[in-house]
Design brief:
- By secondary structure, the chain is of the alpha/beta class.
- The chain has a single domain, classed as TIM Barrel, CATH 3.20.20.150.
- It has 9 helices and 12 strands.
- The chain has helices spanning 15-24, 46-59, 76-93, 109-131, 148-157, 169-173, 178-185, 218-227, 249-264; strands at residues 2-6, 29-32, 34-35, 38-39, 62-71, 97-101, 136-140, 163-167, 189-194, 196-200, 205-209, 233-236.
- The chain has an 8-stranded parallel beta barrel, surrounded by 6 helices. Strands 3-4 form a two-stranded antiparallel ribbon.
- The two termini are 15 Å apart.
């Protein structure tokens, strides 16, 4: 496994500084969600795209993934247009993978089943759009698609055209231990987010915390990934962009990288 971090951890840093932090804090690569603290969208300017490309090229830093905000629930045409635009950016920055979300699902059973079938059909169309740029698509265990079983169903409908991003937190929220998630998703896990949290009073209320300080079985997940021969990226997703109460990156990144390396080594 190679270690990267999502630059959600450093919303106050320039893009260049997020690139420099890869080596400085003990990582092997970068997962891109932000540019100069703002979420990357198809509307990012050409000068900004060139700046990011230059920073990555001059540093030699590997890009693990480009995290998009695209949701299958947005509808076929907007999703496909978004995939085309974001895959072009991913290719320019050297990202082999782009993350997408499922989004919300209808509550009623028949409408829900129809939405899942549509999600699979859209991904069948989206995969070759991205692959024309040399980029693959992975659906994250997130939002109404937090269950690994649901993500596996959609991937099956998509005929293996896409992979999965296994986010450690969300399947745990659904009562799915790492062994179950990996059994269900198997070799279709193309990227992994390491994130910890503790449960708060209230319905599905959580507080994000540094690795090892919550209840999410991240260490168990890493051990199982190692035992099963996973050779993809293991990404620290420390979401300070959305949770400003979290520690600053110059405090939080290095110790969590060291902890992940220890877990990968079985210590």
């Amino acid at each position: 496994m190679r270690l990267c971090y999502s630059n959600l951890a450093c919303p106050d840093w320039s893009f260049e500084r997020t690139v420099e932090a890869v080596a400085a804090y003990g990582f092997d690569g970068l997962e891109i969600r932000l540019f100069d603290g703002e979420v990357v969208t198809p509307a990012i300017s050409a000068p900004a795209r060139r700046r990011a490309e230059a920073a990555l090229r001059s540093s030699g830093v590997a890009v693990a993934a480009l995290d998009t905000s695209l949701r299958l629930s947005e509808g076929r045409r907007p999703f496909l247009e978004g995939v085309a635009a974001m895959a072009e950016i991913a290719a320019q920055w050297g990202a082999p993978l782009m993350r997408v979300f499922g989004g919300p699902l209808p509550a009623a059973h028949l409408e829900r089943e129809a939405a899942l079938e549509e999600a699979g059909a859209v991904l069948v169309q989206a995969a070759p759009v991205a692959s024309r740029h040399g980029v693959a698509i992975a659906l994250e265990t997130h939002d109404d698609f937090s269950s690994a079983h649901l993500v596996a169903r959609v991937m099956q409908m998509a005929g293996g055209a896409v992979g999965a991003v296994y986010d450690s937190h969300h399947p745990h929220r659904m009562g799915e231990p790492p062994s179950e998630v990996l059994d269900v998703l198997g070799p279709h896990v193309w990227h992994v987010h390491a994130k910890d949290a503790r449960r708060l009073p209230g319905e599905d209320s959580w507080q994000l915390v540094p690795l090892g300080e919550g209840e999410v079985p991240v260490r168990e997940m890493v051990g199982l990934l190692s035992a099963r021969g996973y050779q993809g990226w293991l990404s620290l997703e420390f979401e300070k962009k959305w949770h400003p109460e979290l520690a600053p990156p110059d405090v939080a990144l290095r110790p969590q990288a060291e902890l992940l390396r220890a877990w990968v080594a079985g210590r």
